[in-house]
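Sequence only, no structure available. Ideas?
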Amino acid sequence: MNKITRRQALGTTAGALTVLGLAGATAHAAATDSRAAATPAGTVDEVYKGRRIQITPGTGGGHHGGHHSPGLPTVRIDGRELHVMRNADGSWISVVNHYETYPDPASLARAAVRELQGAVLAPFAPAGGTA
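Reply:
I predicted one. Tokens follow.
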């Protein structure tokens, strides 16, 4: 009668777990890719610290100094627009904090949520304009 050794049992178990892990990782990657394909590039819709952040790519509807600025994304926190600006070096700032820069609009929006500490975002009226 053939008896299986402990080494053989562990090797078989490790091999089976590896196959299951690879199958699970492949299935997760396929699901992630399908979600990414359904969401336009540059779009964010997430809940951060209980606040909903929505970012849509810019098409020319932003305000800066009373003028339309093409390419600025629309950033919303709980449905209210957060006025954002892009610096010459590519970093981002907002009306919530002009003194700290962020590498992308999503990081900037999360920082604004932290800074607001639960307060509602007030409407922004650019110079010479109305909210």
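Residues 30-38, 61-68 have pLDDT under 50 and may be disordered.
Hope that gets you unstuck.
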